[in-house]
Specification:
Layout (H helix, E strand, L loop, with lengths): L3 E4 L9 H11 L5 H13 L5 H13 L5 H21 L6 H8 L4 E9 H10 L8 E5 L3 H11 L7 E5 L2 H9 L3 E5 L13 E3 L5 H10 L1
Helix pairs in contact: 1-4, 2-3, 3-4, 4-6, 7-8
């Protein structure tokens, strides 16, 4: 029986993935065209990975430049400035609001995000969503570790949890903890084209998918 649902945030509950993509493009607009192309391809192929990890890889693996802690701090502050207010203003993914409202008293609902913890907690608070969730986890905690903490803290077995995400990092976090994964599909069809899992275009069908699992 399903007792808990773990959600990624951007692109799963809120239509905000384009905001993050635009921020990366703006931050690196001064780089060469080939490097910009590689940066954006890397970003889009690695949704669900924290901005800290992305900036480190971009500097080391693409730009071949040294990234100091001071520079990393500046990049992260700039990124936050570009995205936070826009994410707060972004609309729900279709079906998300209704699912939360119908289920927050019946199920344990959790957010596991690659956004820094303080930032995702503030966004959720300012969107008046905090009361829906038992816990909110953000970077630097890795998603797999967050799932294990939820399972331990709430005495949940793998078969009692569903993880809803839109990135390979979400899928891996679910797989390494042996829990069912549901992919929200929008502009990420290629990422999940060879992965067998439940796939939903939005969250309008999430209730039905969970009900089928309960009855099955």
């Amino acid at each position: 029986m399903i007792k808990a649902v773990i959600f990624d945030f951007d692109g799963v509950l809120i239509e905000s993935t384009g905001i993050k993509t635009a921020a990366f493009a703006r931050i690196f607009k001064g780089e060469s065209a080939p490097d910009r192309e590689r940066i954006m391809r890397y970003h889009l192929s690695n949704a669900g990975i924290s901005r800290f990890e992305k900036f480190r890889y971009i500097y080391r693996g693409i730009l071949k430049k040294r990234l100091t802690q001071a520079k990393l701090k500046v990049l992260c502050a700039e990124f936050s400035l570009l995205v936070k207010e826009a994410v707060i203003a972004a609309p729900f993914v279709a079906g998300a609001s209704g699912f939360l409202e119908r289920n927050y008293r019946k199920l344990g609902l959790f957010v596991v995000s690659a956004t820094p913890h303080n930032e995702i907690a503030e966004i959720i608070k300012r969107k008046n969503l905090s009361f829906y969730f038992r816990e909110i986890y953000g970077a630097p905690m890795h998603k797999g570790a967050a799932v294990r903490k939820i399972m331990a803290d709430y005495s949940l077995a793998p078969e009692e949890i569903v993880y809803v995400g839109d990135a390979l990092s979400d899928y891996r976090a679910a797989r390494e903890n042996s829990i069912v994964f549901i992919a929200r599909i929008k502009d990420n069809q290629e990422l999940f084209s060879k992965i067998e899992c439940i796939k939903l275009k939005d969250l309008s069908g999430l209730q039905g998918a969970i009900n089928r699992m309960r009855n099955g």
